[in-house]
Amino acid sequence: MTQLHTVVFPVAGRGTRLLPITKSVPKELLPVYDKPVLQFAVEEALDAGAKRLIFVTHASKTAIPNYLKPDNALKAALDGGGKTELLRALDDVSLDNTVEVIFVEQDSPLGLGHAVLLSAPHVTGSAFGVILPDDVILGTPCLTEMAAGYPGGHMIAAMKVSADDVSKYGIFDAVADGDQHQIFRANGLVEKPDSETAPSQLAAVGRYILDICVFDALRTLAPGAGGEYQLTDAIAADVGRVELNGFAFSGSRYDCGNHAGLLQAANARAAQVGQALVAE
Ligand code: UTP
Questions:
Q1: How many angstroms separate the CA atoms of 228 and 117, rounded?
Q2: How much is the pLDDT for 256?
Q3: Integer CA distances (angstroms), 61 to 11, 24, 37, 42, 114, in order
Q4: How close is the Cα of 34 to the center of ligand 1, in Å?
Q5: Which residues are within 8 A (CB) of 168 and not within 5 positions of it... i.e. 6 or more apart?
Q6: What is the DSSP letter of 242?
Q7: Are 14 and 110 in contact (CB under 8 A)?
Q8: pLDDT tens for residues 132-163?
Q9: Closest ligand 1 atom, residue 109 Cα
Q10: Is the Cβ atom of 257 under 6 angstroms away from ligand 1?
Q11: Closest alpha carbon to 96 in 129, 134, 130, 53
């Protein structure tokens, strides 16, 4: 089991697919039934043993540091009012002082690769985790099972998608059959291929364990798709030098970067905590 000391959370994006809500509310704080999107990501990192959480954020998203900060006045008010249940909800989201929280500002959303590079001065160890919070994964904590199987190099969570959907994802050029193996070797990643040329139907989703050498690739990276610095381009540039593996995770992933995904995640979470909210 690899000890993941540091986990990076890139949360500086504009969240345009969730406008108009995201005009003032960061998508990371939208609810998945009983908890904000970001809370699931933080809990997953802690479950994997992380001791340093780095949030790459934007100055306009002040609600994110506010959410992560302890609120002693609110605690005292709930305590004084005997509201033990509510106090417990607040305690559940409090980070204790064994966990270090660092905020790094990304002035402009130049891409996920750029956001991850900004975390470099604060990353220690030979490998670190990255969680994209808007990919909510319910069930077995994804980063924990990845860390347990981590063979070194770069590893990215993978899930099988339909042939029609390959053009929405980074797709693994898998050497071994990812249907058969939880960890499979890949020769590369192809960003949003069409269904005819896609090397597989195994899509990369927002959990990574990266060797720190990814920062070298990120430093020399040119802008890619959409004019943005793409993390997948840096990982692909390392292929041949650094082993790349996909990890077919056990949980269920919801894309909470769009309205339908948020609703599906909320229903799944409600069922998980025993509340059937919306009839199928
Ligand atoms: P997304 O592309 O899903 O987020 O990036 P977005 O850009 O906010 O969403 P839309 O497309 O406008 O709706 C994946 C993750 O990377 C972060 C985002 O915050 C999200 O968590 N990100 C993306 C950054 O932190 N910085 C960037 O420059 C780009």
A1: 13
A2: 98
A3: 9, 8, 15, 17, 18
A4: 23
A5: 161, 192, 203
A6: B
A7: no
A8: 999 999 999 999 999 999 999 999 999 999 99
A9: 28
A10: yes
A11: 53
Domains of the chain: 6-279 (3.90.550.10)
Report d(CA 96, CA 50) in Å as an integer. Answer: 12
Is the peptide bond preceding residue 141 cis, with omega within 30 degrees of 0? no
User: CA 141 to CA 43: how far, in whole Å?
Assistant: 9
Contacts (Cβ under 8 Å, ≥6 apart) of 248: 158, 159, 160, 178, 179, 181, 182, 183, 184, 202
Interatomic CA distance for residues 271 and 76, integer angstroms:
32
User: What is the rounded distance in angstroms from the CA atom of residue 112 to the CA atom of residue 10?
Assistant: 7
Q: What is the 3-state secondary structure (H, E, C) of 115-158?
A: HHHHCHHHCCCCEEEEECCCEEEECCCHHHHHHHHCCCCEEEEE
Closest CA to 52 of 97, 95, 11, 7: 7
261 Cβ inside 6 Å of ligand 1: no
Output the pTM of the full model.
0.94
> Cα(61) to centroid of ligand 1, in Å?
13
- Label each residue of 22-82 as H, E or C: HHCCCHHHCEECCEEHHHHHHHHHHHCCCCEEEEEECCCCCHHHHHHCCCHHHHHHHHHCC
Q: What confidence category does residue 225 fall into, taking pLDDT thresholds of 50, 70 and 90?
A: confident
Q: Minimum mean pLDDT among 17-31, 93-107, 256-270: which range?
A: 93-107
Q: From the CA of 58, give the closest atom in ligand 1.
A: 25
Ligand 1 pocket mutation, candidates 54, 132, 256, criterion most atoms within 8 A of CB: 132
Q: Single out the residue of 239, 253, 242, 247 nearest to residue 181, CA to CA.
A: 247
